[in-house]
Model the fold of this input.
Amino acid sequence: MRDDVVDDTHDKLLWKWIKGDLTVTSEFGDPVNTTEYVLCVYDTTASTPGLVLGITIPPGGTCADDKPCWKATGTKGFKYKDNNLTQAGVRKLILRAGAPGQAKIVLKGKGGNLPLPPMPLAQDPVVTVQVANTVGSCWEAIYSAPAIKTDLQRFKDRGD
Done:
Protein backbone atom coordinates (compact mmCIF):
# COMPACT_ATOMS: atom_id res chain seq x y z
CA MET A 1 0.00 0.00 0.00
CA ARG A 2 1.18 3.46 -0.75
CA ASP A 3 -0.61 6.52 0.55
CA ASP A 4 0.51 9.85 -0.86
CA VAL A 5 -0.58 12.02 2.03
CA VAL A 6 -0.69 15.20 -0.06
CA ASP A 7 -2.30 13.98 -3.30
CA ASP A 8 -4.68 11.02 -3.00
CA THR A 9 -4.69 10.49 -6.77
CA HIS A 10 -1.27 8.83 -6.29
CA ASP A 11 -2.50 6.29 -3.71
CA LYS A 12 -1.84 2.66 -4.70
CA LEU A 13 -2.73 -0.79 -3.47
CA LEU A 14 -1.26 -4.05 -4.72
CA TRP A 15 -1.92 -7.40 -3.06
CA LYS A 16 -0.66 -10.66 -4.51
CA TRP A 17 -1.51 -14.14 -3.29
CA ILE A 18 0.66 -16.18 -5.62
CA LYS A 19 1.85 -19.75 -5.51
CA GLY A 20 -1.26 -20.33 -3.40
CA ASP A 21 -2.85 -23.42 -1.95
CA LEU A 22 -4.97 -25.76 -4.04
CA THR A 23 -7.91 -23.74 -5.33
CA VAL A 24 -10.68 -25.09 -7.57
CA THR A 25 -12.71 -22.83 -9.84
CA SER A 26 -15.96 -23.55 -7.97
CA GLU A 27 -14.53 -21.78 -4.88
CA PHE A 28 -14.76 -18.52 -6.84
CA GLY A 29 -18.52 -18.80 -7.25
CA ASP A 30 -19.96 -16.75 -10.12
CA PRO A 31 -18.80 -13.12 -9.89
CA VAL A 32 -20.06 -12.48 -13.42
CA ASN A 33 -23.60 -12.78 -12.01
CA THR A 34 -23.95 -13.37 -8.26
CA THR A 35 -20.77 -13.65 -6.16
CA GLU A 36 -19.52 -10.58 -4.28
CA TYR A 37 -15.89 -10.16 -3.15
CA VAL A 38 -14.44 -8.30 -0.17
CA LEU A 39 -10.85 -7.29 0.56
CA CYS A 40 -10.15 -6.91 4.28
CA VAL A 41 -6.94 -5.68 5.91
CA TYR A 42 -6.53 -6.22 9.65
CA ASP A 43 -3.78 -4.42 11.54
CA THR A 44 -2.85 -5.87 14.90
CA THR A 45 -2.05 -3.55 17.80
CA ALA A 46 -0.96 -5.08 21.11
CA SER A 47 -2.08 -8.48 19.78
CA THR A 48 -5.64 -7.24 19.03
CA PRO A 49 -6.59 -7.25 15.33
CA GLY A 50 -8.68 -4.39 13.96
CA LEU A 51 -10.16 -3.89 10.51
CA VAL A 52 -8.38 -0.95 8.86
CA LEU A 53 -9.51 -1.44 5.26
CA GLY A 54 -12.56 -3.06 3.74
CA ILE A 55 -13.41 -2.89 0.04
CA THR A 56 -16.37 -4.59 -1.61
CA ILE A 57 -16.35 -5.63 -5.26
CA PRO A 58 -19.90 -6.43 -6.38
CA PRO A 59 -20.84 -9.10 -8.91
CA GLY A 60 -21.75 -8.28 -12.50
CA GLY A 61 -21.96 -4.68 -13.54
CA THR A 62 -20.76 -2.58 -16.42
CA CYS A 63 -17.45 -0.75 -16.20
CA ALA A 64 -15.33 1.34 -18.57
CA ASP A 65 -16.46 1.58 -22.19
CA ASP A 66 -19.75 -0.17 -21.33
CA LYS A 67 -17.94 -3.51 -20.99
CA PRO A 68 -18.80 -6.04 -18.28
CA CYS A 69 -16.68 -5.56 -15.14
CA TRP A 70 -16.25 -9.33 -14.72
CA LYS A 71 -15.40 -11.99 -17.25
CA ALA A 72 -14.51 -15.66 -17.06
CA THR A 73 -10.92 -16.45 -18.03
CA GLY A 74 -11.32 -19.86 -19.60
CA THR A 75 -12.07 -22.61 -17.10
CA LYS A 76 -9.59 -21.52 -14.42
CA GLY A 77 -11.01 -18.30 -13.05
CA PHE A 78 -12.26 -14.77 -13.45
CA LYS A 79 -11.02 -11.25 -13.98
CA TYR A 80 -12.49 -7.95 -12.79
CA LYS A 81 -11.39 -4.80 -14.59
CA ASP A 82 -12.55 -1.23 -14.04
CA ASN A 83 -10.32 1.50 -15.46
CA ASN A 84 -12.77 4.09 -14.05
CA LEU A 85 -11.95 2.92 -10.49
CA THR A 86 -15.59 3.24 -9.42
CA GLN A 87 -15.51 0.49 -6.74
CA ALA A 88 -13.35 2.14 -4.07
CA GLY A 89 -10.48 2.55 -6.50
CA VAL A 90 -10.21 -1.14 -7.43
CA ARG A 91 -8.86 -1.44 -10.96
CA LYS A 92 -8.25 -5.17 -11.26
CA LEU A 93 -8.95 -8.44 -9.45
CA ILE A 94 -7.58 -11.64 -10.96
CA LEU A 95 -8.76 -15.01 -9.63
CA ARG A 96 -6.97 -18.09 -10.98
CA ALA A 97 -7.55 -21.62 -9.74
CA GLY A 98 -4.74 -24.14 -9.71
CA ALA A 99 -2.87 -26.96 -8.07
CA PRO A 100 -0.83 -26.22 -4.92
CA GLY A 101 1.70 -23.54 -5.81
CA GLN A 102 -0.16 -22.49 -8.97
CA ALA A 103 -3.31 -20.71 -7.76
CA LYS A 104 -3.21 -16.93 -7.57
CA ILE A 105 -5.19 -13.85 -6.66
CA VAL A 106 -4.03 -10.34 -7.52
CA LEU A 107 -5.83 -7.14 -6.54
CA LYS A 108 -4.79 -3.70 -7.78
CA GLY A 109 -6.25 -0.34 -6.88
CA LYS A 110 -5.28 3.29 -7.17
CA GLY A 111 -6.45 6.86 -6.98
CA GLY A 112 -8.50 9.13 -4.79
CA ASN A 113 -11.37 6.63 -4.30
CA LEU A 114 -9.03 4.16 -2.60
CA PRO A 115 -9.82 4.25 1.16
CA LEU A 116 -6.33 3.50 2.48
CA PRO A 117 -5.86 3.33 6.25
CA PRO A 118 -3.73 5.82 8.16
CA MET A 119 -0.05 4.92 8.02
CA PRO A 120 2.09 3.54 9.47
CA LEU A 121 0.38 0.27 10.33
CA ALA A 122 1.18 -1.02 13.82
CA GLN A 123 1.90 -4.62 12.74
CA ASP A 124 2.11 -5.61 16.41
CA PRO A 125 2.82 -8.42 15.65
CA VAL A 126 1.05 -8.97 12.28
CA VAL A 127 -1.02 -7.52 9.44
CA THR A 128 -3.55 -9.92 7.90
CA VAL A 129 -4.99 -9.51 4.41
CA GLN A 130 -7.99 -11.52 3.23
CA VAL A 131 -10.02 -11.78 0.06
CA ALA A 132 -13.34 -13.47 0.72
CA ASN A 133 -16.51 -14.06 -1.24
CA THR A 134 -20.20 -14.66 -0.61
CA VAL A 135 -19.95 -18.40 -1.33
CA GLY A 136 -17.82 -18.81 1.80
CA SER A 137 -14.32 -18.98 0.34
CA CYS A 138 -11.47 -16.96 1.83
CA TRP A 139 -7.82 -16.53 0.89
CA GLU A 140 -5.43 -15.01 3.40
CA ALA A 141 -1.87 -13.88 3.92
CA ILE A 142 -0.18 -13.00 7.21
CA TYR A 143 2.59 -10.41 7.36
CA SER A 144 4.70 -10.63 10.51
CA ALA A 145 6.81 -7.76 11.81
CA PRO A 146 9.13 -6.30 10.84
CA ALA A 147 7.81 -5.08 7.48
CA ILE A 148 10.14 -4.62 4.54
CA LYS A 149 9.09 -0.96 4.56
CA THR A 150 6.60 0.90 6.71
CA ASP A 151 6.33 4.63 7.26
CA LEU A 152 3.80 7.46 6.99
CA GLN A 153 3.26 6.78 3.29
CA ARG A 154 3.89 3.09 2.64
CA PHE A 155 3.44 -0.46 3.85
CA LYS A 156 5.35 -3.15 1.98
CA ASP A 157 5.98 -6.70 3.14
CA ARG A 158 6.09 -10.35 2.09
CA GLY A 159 3.73 -12.92 3.53
CA ASP A 160 4.97 -15.49 6.02
Remarks:
- The CA atoms of residues 44 and 123 lie 5 Å apart.
- The chain is about 0% helix and 45% strand.
- The chain has a mean pLDDT of 94.
